[in-house]
Amino acid sequence: MTREPSGLVIRAFAPPDQAAARRLILEGLGEHFGAVDETRNPDIDDIAANYIGRGHLFLVAEDARGLVGTAALIFEDGATAQMVRVSVAPPWRRRGLAKALVMRLIEAGRTRGLVRLWMETNDDWEPAIRLYRACGFAPYDHRDGNSYMEVDFARNPRSPAA
Description:
- This protein is of the alpha+beta class.
- Helix content is 28%, strand content 31%.
- Strands 1-2-3-4-5-7-6 form a seven-stranded mixed sheet.
């Protein structure tokens, strides 16, 4: 089991986390893309309804000052889930938090009996792609400026994500 970096707690999202989680995600997108059209991210306007209420998993990481990371799984069917909304506050980057969040999602997927966990990111988001590779994700498609990666538990049960 992956441990979170010292001074952090990774836990399930709770409704009081809403404003901080939304802000963190939008700030991360803004940092990468420049201006962000907030209306293009309606799922984070009500995380409790759009994730928790639909049976998905949404994790947050917090330090003594507040929320510093997010990550979620959207369960698509009994065997597959998509990893989304991995975001880490700048002071916590390159310190193992993103990897801890991703590995926690992979562990949750295994526990739930998933066969496949996948994600997509922009093909120019190199730090994210390196992170996902380090966590055991393998590329399976590339189109329209996006990279698609997966952990296929059925095909590779001993992957680094195992």
